[in-house]
Write a structure and sequence with these properties.
This protein is α/β, with parallel strands linked by helices. The chain is 45% helix and 21% strand. A five-stranded parallel sheet has the order 2-1-3-4-5, sandwiched between helices. β4, α4 and β5 form a beta-alpha-beta unit. α2 runs parallel beside α3. The radius of gyration is 13 Å and the shape is globular. It starts with a strand and ends with a helix. The model has no long low-confidence stretch (mean pLDDT 93).
Length: 120
């Protein structure tokens, strides 16, 4: 069975590298981009099973990427990540169609469990 494909969109390059290393070791194929524009470009040209989106990115934020996914690729599961975990972002994420909402800082175990749960 081929590895599940994950797209991570986060403007923190260190976090992206760490998560790519970790999720690759768990058997996933994970690519990362550092902007919402790059996430949409990547999704236009590639198939993924799950997207992990930081809410706050310059220019095109995670909500814009989520709207694109729900409109163009509705089968992709979406996890929204944010360091600004307030009720407003949680409600916006769920109303916009996100599958999960995780606030930073989070544990790698929590993120891995959520990914495994969504990709079952």
């Amino acid at each position: 069975m081929p590895a599940n494909r994950i797209l991570l969109a986060d403007d923190d390059p260190e976090l992206c590298k760490i998560l790519q290393t970790e999720f690759t070791s768990f058997g996933y194929h994970i690519e990362y981009v550092q902007s919402g524009e790059d996430a949409i470009s990547y999704l236009e040209q590639n198939q993924v099973d799950l997207a992990i989106l930081d809410i706050r990115m310059p220019n095109v934020d995670g909500f814009e990427v989520l709207k694109y996914i729900k409109r163009e690729k509705p089968l992709i599961k979406v996890i929204m990540l944010t360091a600004f975990a307030d009720l407003k972002h949680l409600v916006m994420s769920m109303k916009s169609g996100a599958d999960r909402f995780i606030s930073k800082p989070y544990s790698l175990e929590e993120l891995r469990y959520t990914v495994e749960e969504l990709l079952k």
